[in-house]
Amino acid sequence: MTEAPPTETDLILRASTGDSDAFGGLVQPHLALFYNGIHRILGNDADAQDALQDALMSIHRDLPRFEGRSRFSSWGYKVCLNAALMVRRSRVRIHDMERPEPLALGPFDARGHHQEMDHAPEWQVEAQAHALAEQHELRACLTRALDELPDTHRIVFVLKDLEDWDTEDIARHLQVTAGTVRQRLHRARVLLQARLRTLLLGGRP
Amino acid sequence: MKLMPSCYEVQTDLTEYAEGALPLTRKLGIWIHLLLCHVCAGFLRGLRALPGVAKVSLAPPDKAPEAAARALAEVQAALRKNQTH
Residues of A numbered 177-196 whose beta carbons fall under 8 angstroms of chain B's beta carbons: which are they? Predict the structure, then answer.
């Protein structure tokens, strides 16, 4: 008779005592999730690997304090996001300059209203984007558009729209005002939507 | 400030509008504009749909990338080193 695989609780207990194989068995099923969350914040492989390594060390160190009130994956994911935010704070922020480019809106007439309203393409985002959501092309398009955002904008979009953080929590973490968070979020959404619209409408901006 | 904002003003303020962060008169002006302008209303629908689309299409891959495996291997090596000392 084959031996039953160890439970998550067993792995946590063994990993807490320094068993590296148990730690690997505990973390491996969630590694893609952890790395993905970190990478979305940092935007590059080298920083993401460093942050994941820091996060895994923190997870191991804090395992004795993990009380099982939440799932291990949720708890570990939070540790990973915090590690990513720490790395982001400490590195040279060469991409943090606000780009002086205008919002990708319009075109508008002199009074600020749409030109040729009757001919403006209606983007049926719900129908079209969801149909494409799992396709590689859309993933690549969004990933590229996210990478092209200034760090300050990407992180706000990731925390608000992908991780569902409150605006106030994001403001506290990033040490900016809630108004600044909303402003950056809006610019990020507008740019991403413009890219998505271009893709969905077959190249028409 | 005029009650009815332009399309440009509406599209600039839509995230603040959606978060309930605007003064009442501005909020009311945008609400009326959205009832009358199908382009701005479509723009708002696009903004609202974006997080859901992004969550699905940017979901983690099934398999962890090499960089993640390397990070775990480094940590496991450090743990083994600690165990032997």
Answer: 178-179, 182-183, 185-186, 189-190, 192-193, 196
